[in-house]
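Researcher: Here's the sequence for the chain we discussed earlier.
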Amino acid sequence: MVLGGAIAGYVIVGLAAAVGKLIVGAILRFRFDEFIFFMVRIGKKHKRLSVGLCDPQPYISCSMIDTKETKMRNLIYGTFSMALALFCTENVCIWVYGTKLMPKNPLTIAMSAVMAACTLFLILRLGVTQKKKSGGDATGIMRQEYERCMAAAKVGIPPGKINIRQVAFTGKVTDYSVYKKYLLMQYYHFLDTGDYSSVKKVMDEFENYVPDKWPQSELAMLSEFVFYHVIIAPNEGKAKFYGKPFLEKLDGAEEVNARRTFAYWLFFIEGDKGAALQIAMEAVKQVKDYRLVGCQPMELRLLEALIKRIENTP
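Model: Thanks. This is the structure I predict for it:
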């Protein structure tokens, strides 16, 4: 009963927060991005919704894209979500401990306790997140730029047409995560414009912050390290160094940027024309479903260039 109550409380708060984001996002005309319920994902492809499975996540989440990206709109968006979660928590606690509308037993006590804890965590996280976003220091600027560029790419703006504000890294260990995401958007910007000297500068800086063990969540970053050392600045030693963990993480469900890298790897490192052509052709069909809509033309160009190279190679 205690476990059932804890799970129920966790789900209720998670759903309440997600519904709050959906409601206020719709009012403020945000664009729906995705809803994740543990391992079930509802996303938007073009103008239609798609339902599928994703890697199991220990949470319930909903994300909406603000195409205007103003601090006040973002604050309202987050606050309303927390307010709805808090409303549900308060009602359950009042029903259990005040009005007795719900029986007081191990199930309801566990449910109300978990709901209160989860709601407090969400409120604290909102406060920390808003403080980081509103900060005028390097960390705040990097976070704002990454989120703005990612939102623009998701709604269809090519990364080459997104101007990214330049900011120097703070050197703080706690800022590694946001800095790597910021560098990734810079990389896509210069890759799309064909400015390979700037791509090299970004990747030289990026390599200072690679992890000892790559998590599955950073497969997009890892794939670009492989791609860079395979074709942009060919270095077979480094390509294989990054290629080993990259190949281990491929499971057939990766997005088109990883499939593109895999095709280049097969052709330039393994010399397998047939397999490279097959993967490249499959990736071409996959481009239209890539969640970063603005990156689709760039991915298609890179894949078509590889296919042409394969077909012209004896």
